[in-house]
Amino acid sequence: MSEIRRLDVKALTRVEGEGALRVRVRGGAVEIAALDIYEPPRFFEKLLVGRELREVPDIVARICGICPVAYQLAACGALERALGVRIMPEIRALRRLLMCGEWLQSHALHVHLLHAPDFLGFESGFTMAAAHPRLVEDGLRLKAVGARIMEVVGGRAVHPINVAVGGFHRAPTAAAIRGLVPDLEWALGRAVALVAEVARFECPDFTRPAECVALAHASDYPMNEGRIVASSGLDIDAADFESHFTEHQVPHSTALHCRLQPGDRTYLVGPLARIALHRDRLPDAARRAADAAGLEQPVVNPHRSIVVRCVEIVAACAEALAIARSAAADIAPCRVEWRPGEATGAHAVEAPRGLLWHRYAIGADGLVKAASIVPPTSQNQARIEADLKAILPAALALDDAAATAACERVIRSYDPCISCATHFLTLAVERQPFAS
Question: How far is Cα 334 from Cα 339, in angstroms, rounded to an integer?
């Protein structure tokens, strides 16, 4: 009888949300390598049906406490495209500033408290703090700078309340925006140093070339808008997403897996994909930091994503600082008026973890008729499982604890946001009449 070896992690640590890892090997061959997402589905797409358009940004913000802005701006972009709304350049800059705050907050949290312990030999960020207090303290301060941007622009750091279809409910004053400059100057300097520091971390040797998918903007590093492109040559408008990407349910997950067609291909979204496709569009400070650290192009080791996230922290700080310094006058009006009507619109943004796509159908009554949301983690999930299968032959030479830790490190390199992905299941209720 073939020997069966099982690795089971009931709850993954240092990731957002609740998920598990299940591995089964028979006779040296990997049979199962599954990222089990068992967090209950939350049916956000169904919750949006019948809602007024002005309610949508606040509802979708609740999908994620770490990247609520990405959800809000993806929703606003889709609804604005449906309604034919064109936002002003000042609003575009303010939205980009808000997204910079979210990138800074999210990346700083992941780098310093969730991912760095894997490289420095600690079980958690809390135990790591005793040996590396400055690293943790600076990480918390960087995160606080991002949170401050979200408070100034979005109204509060968690689930911002100031984002609206057409712009903002109330624009922060130019003085308030310029008030961010001192903290951002410190953050930029610290972020540049952080790239060099983290680039020296010793990474496992694990090469995994991938088909990369990200937004593409004519001049900017991808964030709030653009076409959807892939390293294979795909170049489409967000409205055409469903013609090239398909979702399917897998038995072990409450999230759908998204694949690229034709060929039902796995693909990669997130920092590694963005920098692979658009390194030349990084702000100068970020590009210089990446070059000085000797960051390869493309980065094909998922463990090296921690370095790329640090480069994107520099990018977020540099862009936010430029916007804050240029704030010369209060923005008025800060919202474009719109009139609801029957229409459909789609839009994509780059959440910290990767491409986030929204599509809304609006009914003749002006209410949401249908909603579809595809988050980054669902797009990366098949890729994560493929990486697990690839790393297992080498990991199986280790004892169970070390093999499990090697698999967990792969998962954490993607910074999965499990809660974001658990609203996908189609809700089908079959009701039988009561017996008479």
Answer: 17
Per-residue confidence (pLDDT) for residue 2, from 0 to 100: 62
Q: Is the peptide bond before 298 cis (omega within 30 degrees of 0)?
A: yes
Separation of alpha carbons 203 and 188, rounded Å: 25
In a domain, 431, yes or no: no
276-320 pLDDT tens trace: 999 999 999 999 999 999 999 999 999 999 999 999 999 999 999
pLDDT in tens, 232-267: 999 999 999 999 999 988 888 777 889 999 999 999
How many whole angstroms separate alpha carbon 224 and alpha carbon 245?
A: 20
Residues 6+ apart with CB under 8 A from 399: none
* Number of structural domains the chain divides into: 1
Q: Which domain holds residue 292?
A: 44-421
| CATH code (residue 91) | 1.10.645.10
Report pLDDT for 423: 62
Query: CA separation (Å) from 408 to 10, 273, 371?
Result: 12, 21, 33
Query: ∠ at Cα 407 (401, 413), nearest 5°?
Result: 130
User: How many other CB atoms are found less than 10 A from the CB of residue 183?
Assistant: 20
